[in-house]
Amino acid sequence: MADNDTIQWTPELRAEMEAMTSTQRAAVLMLLLGEEQAAEIVKYLSPKEVQALGAAMVQASSLSQGAVNVVLDQFVDMLKKQNSVGLGGSDYVDRVMRLALGIKFAKKHHKTSMIQTHERFFLAS
Questions:
Q1: Residue 78 — very low, low, confident or very high, per pLDDT cuts 50/70/90?
Q2: Contact 25/84 with Cβ under 8 angstroms?
Q3: What is the number of other CB atoms lying within 10 angstroms of the CB of residue 104?
Q4: Which tops the pLDDT comparison, 99 or 124?
Q5: What span, in angstroms and rounded, lies between the C-alpha atoms of 26 and 120?
């Protein structure tokens, strides 16, 4: 993995990164995970998402090594910015549920999980 400081940002690499979609970035990460881990993730995708991701994974072979390094570096940087306190916190879970399942379900789930959290706290006391 290259450091962001050591990446040579040529005009070609900048153009390649600006043109890269989020699906293509996900495809790079899936290819880096390996077959078994990628297969576990694909199980949770819709048929339309599987088709788009699969096509992007095939096309990823045309990406430069520099672009692959940038995608991986950006992903690692993003993970480093998430602290362990914020990761898995109520706000984080709420945002994930809203993005994944829609606002209506997220509100219901959030309320249910908050009630369960409070019940566990008070029952344990």
A1: confident
A2: no
A3: 9
A4: 99
A5: 37
What letter represents residue 122's amino acid? Answer: F
Q: Distance between CA atoms of 116 and 113, rounded to whole angstroms? A: 5
Q: Supply angle C-alpha 98, 99, 104, rounded to 5.
A: 30
pLDDT at res. 8: 87
Cα 42 to the chain's mean position, in Å? Answer: 13
Does the structure show a pLDDT above 70 at 65?
Answer: yes
CB atoms within 10 A of CB 53: 19
Q: How far apart are CA 96 and CA 3, in angstroms?
A: 29
- Mean pLDDT for the stretch of residues 30-43: 91
Instruction: Enter the pTM of the model.
Output: 0.63
Helix 35-42 crosses helix 22-33 at what angle (to 10 degrees)? 130
Q: What gap in Å lies between CA 117 and CA 64, rounded to an integer?
A: 47
Q: Which two tokens stand for residue 59?
A: 């096309």
Radius of gyration of the chain (CA): 19
- For the chain, what is the total number of helices (H) and then of strands (E)? 7, 0
